[in-house]
Amino acid sequence: MEEPLGLRERKRLRTHRTISEAAITLFLERGYDAVSIADIAAAAEVSRRTLFAYFPSKDDLVLHRFADHEDEAARVVREGAPGEAPLDVLHRHLRLAIARRDPISGLCDVPEVVAFYRLVVETPALASALVRYQARSEDTLTAALRAATSPEEPLADRVARLAAVQIIAVHGALARANQERILAGSTADALAPDALAEADRAYELLRGGLQPYRS
Amino acid sequence: MEEPLGLRERKRLRTHRTISEAAITLFLERGYDAVSIADIAAAAEVSRRTLFAYFPSKDDLVLHRFADHEDEAARVVREGAPGEAPLDVLHRHLRLAIARRDPISGLCDVPEVVAFYRLVVETPALASALVRYQARSEDTLTAALRAATSPEEPLADRVARLAAVQIIAVHGALARANQERILAGSTADALAPDALAEADRAYELLRGGLQPYRS
DNA sequence: GAGCATAAGTATATCTAGTGTATAAATCAA
DNA sequence: TTGATTTATACACTAGATATACTTATGCTC
User: Fold this and answer.
1) Given a cut of 90, is residue B81 above it in pLDDT?
2) Is B186 helix (H, G, I), strand (E, B) or coil?
3) What dotted CATH number matches A7-58?
4) What positions of strand C are covered by protein, i.e. any atom < 7 Å from a CB?
5) Would you state the CATH architecture of domain A65-213?
6) pTM over 0.85
7) d(CA A160, CA A147)
8) Of B163, B172, B177, which is closest to A158 when you measure between CB atoms?
9) Is there a contact between A158 and B165 if contact means CB atoms under 8 Å apart?
């Protein structure tokens, strides 16, 4: 299956990486707003026009890193054991991500990752552009849940959408909460038990409903 | 309590309205991207610089209309009967909004409102900037729920945040679903029973959990 | 009502993200 | 090597947003 990849293709990939790394480096050094496209193009030794051939917008220079994760929840559901409930698979996957300090869980204190968290959190333009990816996650998870729904479920399509929206929103909230505490200076090890407890509680709520606010 | 409002203040309010209405009118006529700030300033007979003194950005010319609703959920929870469960109050409020075809419910087919829906939905810049308001809704609702939580609830702060995030996400999803169907040409009257059923199902899921996806 | 401090508005210039177009250079296939 | 095609560049332009200096309008005091 190993495609040999022509020189053209390899060069393209290299340029992509060069630009992205130059951008992230400068952003981390000086902050997102203090770095212009011209600065990045100069650092990567390409023209401004070429930069936009590789990345559609300035924020994409940062956010393209999230693209890999946008169908993660859906994939987890699809690839789970056939008999296993989607919420169980997702819960287990989240616990694993926390345990292994996966950056996506928000609970990673590797300095480079922390700096990256800070960049995204403290730059409103990035934080708000991030919802594009969240929206795609909702769409793909909706489809995956729909496929896992029993056919006789009334309003099955809508229920799948509502469930997906809740799950993605909760995952985002958990990750942001962990990031905040990491950015406040805690270590991942110190936070992990708490983060696991919160994740478990979140899945209790998803599974069993918002009992503290029920009649 | 009637503040007399000096001439200066009244003029300010009038200018604010003039600019906003000129902007919306032009946007609805030609589309968001086809209208420049200069066009709006000319139509409202102010300078571009003055326009930015009233609205911080182009998207705010449209989205400031959502600002009034950003603490609606929180207010509903706070002003509910002391004994009543937050989810019951919110559910009732949502049913009422649908019944009265409140634009916020997504189920309003008054032509001007439909055109406004279309403007927001079909302009990615607006749709994504809208999350700013959603984030604020989450914050205010979190605080309101926190106040309504029993003191012995473990992880009370986090549970309040998780619940708020779920509720706001679900409300948004329901409104978007209604808007889509209205934009596809249905009338509000034709959709209302279905919209109510979906809202009820959504609150069943919030109250009782995502049972279709549980073990 | 006259005069003055302050607030609001304007003109002008500048910066930067993003796009269109035409041209030059590199790559690939024959 | 040559010819077709992709990729990169130079240049020009639009438009959102901000800074600065200047003018006009408002309202308060005497």
Assistant:
1) no
2) coil
3) 1.10.10.60
4) 7-13, 15-21, 27-29
5) Orthogonal Bundle (1.10)
6) yes
7) 9
8) B177
9) no
